[in-house]
Design brief:
Chain B: GO terms for molecular function: ATP binding; ATP hydrolysis activity. The complex is a heterodimer of chains A (274) and B (338). By secondary structure, chain A is of the alpha+beta class. Chain A contains 7 helices and 9 strands. Chain B folds into 2 domains: 186 residues, Rossmann fold (3-Layer(aba) Sandwich), CATH 3.40.50.300; 104 residues, Helicase, Ruva Protein, domain 3 (Orthogonal Bundle), CATH 1.10.8. Chain B contains 14 helices and 11 strands. In chain B, the strands form 4 sheets. A 5-stranded parallel sheet of chain B has the order 2-5-8-1-9. A two-stranded antiparallel sheet of chain B has the order 3-4. In chain B, strands 6-7 form a two-stranded antiparallel ribbon. The longest helix of chain B is centred in the first third of the chain and has 18 residues. The chains are: A alpha+beta (274), B alpha/beta (338).
């Protein structure tokens, strides 16, 4: 008993609370009407309502929905507006009892939202025959003009697409992720099947592309300074250009060279394989 | 002396080049080009700032060639007859007409200097034109022939007042137009200013061995170089493509120029011929028996730049546009072409 005392004390209703209620009128409600209950709670200083204990919009019973709960705080004074909707299809005037609702304060003390009762009545005599022409005409319907919405949709689609394009351009994603030009790799692939002078020319075009301008033998040092990754091949490149000079411009002839192998090695360096 | 073997000529060329570089500091490119012009028997126009050593260089060059030389200063009131005739009152009080600067040395004249050529009037240019093109002129009722003549002219680019721009035809007859800049390195500039050796040009050029490149042999040497230096079909194609793309540069990109309307004319067939001659000489001077693309590149600007005529809208910016055009052409034209 003594051990249970603190629990009892906790559960005891707070003394300083002050509830004033404005209930909906007690009579004259029909099926579908909205009943509004206004509750004002003045809390003692320092106390606060546990927001989890507020009533939630829900079906209270099969004949009553709590559609909305609005809360307004003004200092320690809380105004609650509860909007019920009556779904009781009365066959005769009948009193309905809306149950009270327990709430909690943060200190654990309890607070009751008082219930209320109302009388609801049938809309028409229960025995009167029902005819289709008694139905109210349908309310006139309004066509919603969807064009501005579609326009906005299209605009945002375009903006989205443009944004994606810019983003992917900035990030170097799909359409902009073109791989660095690899002239030597391409040349190596192409000149496998070419006979000597064409293969040689083809490799010269690859040098031009890699250098960004036409590369002649005299430029080789500048090329190697600009692309030092090819420096290990310097001797073979010198040999290649010397042979080209002899073959294309010289009066004599030049020894044969394995151009395909040179192109393969250049391509491998270009792809970072060496 | 005049029928030296080719290898001996090469040694002499190297000797002359070394000596000239010793006399005129920081102008190795200009010196190389002047020597090439001598190997091609072509006339040269030097253009540049005042006091960059143009005249010293030409005097040293004349000394290296040996042979008689004549010199004329261009002035506004210079007349063609002043080049040919010298009029004076003789001791007996009677007027005499003697041969002028050009004829004074006879038909053996090897070098003719024309200082400040743009100060002379067009009549003088016309006479010079014939002298350069045909190496001959008419005076004292007869034809004079100058088989060894090489004309060097210079022109300063600072003043435009009281000057007469050379007509296109006259410029076309110069093998090269070399622009002479002041030496670039600080060492050269300081040496030129402080070393007393450079203060007296006459003493300075006495370092050059007279006639190290004997002028009488140059015609035969030029002939031998032109026939003996091979130009392959691939190289001929390269030269043709270069000239073609400069004549019609519409698919080149040059900053600040509409390349479709850049060129008004120029690059005459004579220009191409001169280019090939100079490239052959360049290859020979490098010790090769065949012309390579780098020979064409080395001589292209001095031989061709003054033969490119731009449309009036672009002409004022010629100093930047023409080098950019040539640079773009060399960057674009593939060699060896497919």
């Amino acid at each position: 008993m003594i051990r249970a005392l603190p629990i009892l004390l906790l559960a005891a209703p707070a003394m300083a609370q002050d509830i004033s209620v404005q209930n909906p009128r007690a009579y004259g409600w029909w099926l579908g009407d909205e009943l509004v209950q206004q509750v004002q709670v003045t809390l003692p200083p320092g106390a606060a309502l546990d927001p989890a204990s507020l009533p939630r919009a829900r079906a209270v019973d099969y004949w009553l929905d709590l559609r909305a709960v609005e809360r307004q705080d003004d200092g320690n004074r809380i105004s609650l507006t509860l909007r019920y909707q009556n779904f009781y299809a009365a066959l005769e005037p009948s009193t309905r009892q809306v149950p009270h609702f327990p709430m909690r304060l943060m200190d654990g003390s309890r607070l009751d939202l008082p219930g209320f009762s109302y009388v609801t009545s049938p809309l028409r005599p229960i025995l009167a025959p029902s005819r289709p022409d008694q139905l109210q005409p349908d309310p006139p319907y309004h066509l919603i003009d969807s064009r501005p919405t579609l326009m906005r949709l299209a605009l945002s689609g375009v903006a989205l697409l443009a944004g994606l394009l810019m983003l992917s351009r900035h990030q170097g994603w799909f359409p902009f992720h073109a791989r660095a030009a690899r002239p030597f790799t391409r040349a190596a692939r192409r000149l496998r099947r070419l006979p000597e002078p064409e293969a040689r020319r083809s490799l010269h075009r690859a040098f031009d592309a890699a250098f960004g301008r036409v590369l002649i033998g005299a430029d080789l040092d500048r090329f190697l300074a600009q692309k030092p990754q090819f420096a290990p091949l310097a001797e073979r490149l010198r040999g290649f250009f010397a042979a080209s000079d002899a073959r294309f411009f010289g009066a004599g002839s030049a020894p044969d060279q394995d151009i395909a192998a040179l192109a393969r090695d250049l391509g491998a360096i270009e792809r970072g394989r060496r | 002396m005049t029928d030296l073997p080719l290898s001996d000529w090469r040694a002499r060329l190297a000797e002359a080049e070394a000596r000239l570089n010793d006399v005129v500091l920081g102008q190795s490119r200009t010196i190389r080009l002047l020597l090439l012009s001598a190997l091609c028997r072509g006339h040269v126009l030097l253009a540049g700032d005042v006091g960059t050593g143009k005249t010293t260089l030409l005097r040293a060059m004349a000394r290296a060639l040996g042979g008689p030389y004549a010199r004329v200063e261009g002035t506004v009131d210079l007349l063609p007859t002043d080049l040919i005739y010298a009029a004076h009152i003789a001791e007996d009080g009677r007027p005499r007409i003697e041969p002028g600067p050009v004829l004074e040395q006879g038909e053996d004249l090897a070098v003719f200097f024309f200082n400040e050529i743009n100060r002379a009037r067009p009549q003088v240019h016309a006479l010079l034109l014939r002298l350069m093109a045909e190496r001959s002129l008419t005076a004292f009722r007869r034809e004079w022939h100058f088989p060894h003549l090489q004309v060097f002219a210079d022109r300063n680019q600072i003043e435009r007042d009281e000057t007469f721009e050379l007509p296109a035809a006259a410029r076309d007859r110069f093998l090269m137009e070399i622009s002479v800049e002041a030496p670039e390195t600080a060492d050269d500039r300081m040496a030129l200013a402080f070393d007393p050796r450079f203060h007296d040009t006459t003493r300075l050029i006495s370092d050059v061995v007279p006639g190290v490149l004997p002028y009488r042999g140059l015609n035969d040497l030029a002939q031998a170089i032109q026939t003996g230096t091979h130009t392959s079909p691939a190289l001929q194609r390269y030269v043709y493509d270069l000239c073609q793309i400069i004549r019609d540069p519409h698919d080149l990109k040059i900053e600040g120029a509409d390349t479709a309307r850049l060129i008004r004319g120029g690059l005459s067939p004579r220009g191409m011929q001169y280019l090939v001659r100079a490239a052959r000489a360049c290859a020979w001077a490098e010790g090769r028996d065949a012309v390579l693309p780098q020979d064409v590149r080395a001589v292209f600007v001095p031989v061709m730049a003054h033969r490119i005529f731009l449309t009036p809208a672009h002409e004022p910016r010629r100093d930047t546009l023409v080098p950019a055009l040539i640079e773009a052409a060399f960057a674009r034209v593939p060699v060896p072409a497919a």
